[in-house]
Design goal:
Layout (H helix, E strand, L loop, with lengths): L8 E5 L3 H16 L14 E6 L1 H10 L7 E5 L14 H9 L4 E6 L1 E7 L3 E6 L2 E6 L5 E7 L2 E8 L1 E5 L7 H4 L11 E7 L14 E4 L4 E5 L7 E5 L2 E4 L3 E7 L4 E6 L4 H10 L1
Parallel strand pairs: 1-2, 2-3
Antiparallel strand pairs: 4-17, 5-6, 5-16, 7-10, 7-14, 8-9, 8-13, 10-11, 11-12, 13-16, 14-15
């Protein structure tokens, strides 16, 4: 490494004992290799390393506004689907990074534009954006795909997930697993009710990323809807409609093993 070249790496860690211990060890090893690890987040860094579980990874992305700096993760949590590096493999990770032995993957996001009677709010999610009833109340929603009416939904709510998020809340709710490189949105019902009045689909639908998914609450429910973005609840009054698209904005993630996705699926779910 060129000694005159400042190579900055951000480390964002959970506050639990295992994460703090791993963070201190990683900082020491990176410093020994000539990298600079700032005390505060540096927007001139070349890499963001998240230490914790998947929750830490998602919080970091939201906190730093979907930064263009690539992300990678060290797993000190439970599932760790985003966090592919184990603490015991830190040396191997650093060596591979220095040798550029990795690929950069683009992770597609989901964008929701929430239209109210007076405003429009823009949300971005990594895993999913969910529309559901306040206090788990049943909601009634009209769902359209590119202005084509799909269904008159009744139930707990609707998940709109990304491919990356298809293995999260979506999967636990009966949705399909979608490979991360596919540009799609998935519409997954939560506890759908099918009756003579409401004809709710019982399974998820996967649509191309170029389509717009529109959800309109019935007038009685315009103030009874929660938007849940990667697990964070948001409340808006007088919702008229919500448009979901795959935005041009993506985030970048380092992948050090081309088989990691399939290994993760097998080890985490089977």
């Amino acid at each position: 490494m060129n000694l005159d070249e400042k190579r900055i790496i951000n480390i964002i860690s959970n506050n639990d004992e295992a994460s703090i211990k791993t963070s201190k060890l990683l900082i020491k090893k990176l410093n020994n290799k000539g990298f600079i690890v700032p005390q505060k987040y540096d927007r001139n860094a070349e890499l963001n390393i998240c230490i914790g579980g998947d929750g830490a990874f998602l919080r970091t992305i939201h906190k730093y506004k979907f930064s263009d700096i690539p992300f990678t993760g060290i797993n000190t949590g439970h599932l760790g689907f985003f966090q592919e590096i184990l603490p015991k493999n830190i040396d191997e990770f650093i060596n591979k990074y220095i040798e550029h032995d990795y690929v950069i993957e683009n992770i597609f996001l989901v964008n929701a534009n929430i239209y109210t009677k007076t405003n429009c709010f823009k949300l971005f999610g990594v895993n999913e954006i969910v529309l559901k009833g306040i206090k788990s109340k049943v909601v009634h929603l009209e769902i359209f795909i590119d202005d084509n009416h799909l269904e008159k939904f009744s139930g707990d709510g609707i998940i709109i997930s990304t491919p990356a998020g298809s293995t999260a809340y979506n999967f636990s709710s009966g949705g399909s697993i979608v490979y991360p490189s596919l540009k799609t949105l998935q519409i997954t019902p939560l506890s759908p009710i099918s009756s003579r009045v409401y004809r709710s689909l019982l399974n998820s639908i996967i649509v191309p990323g170029g389509f717009t998914v529109t959800i309109k609450p019935e007038y009685r429910y315009e103030n009874s809807i929660l938007a849940v973005v990667d697990g964070i609840e948001l409340k808006y009054d007088d919702i008229i409609k919500v448009d979901f698209i795959v935005p041009t904005k993506t985030i970048s993630k380092l992948n050090f093993d081309k088989n990691m996705y399939w290994n993760n699926l097998k080890s985490k779910f089977l």
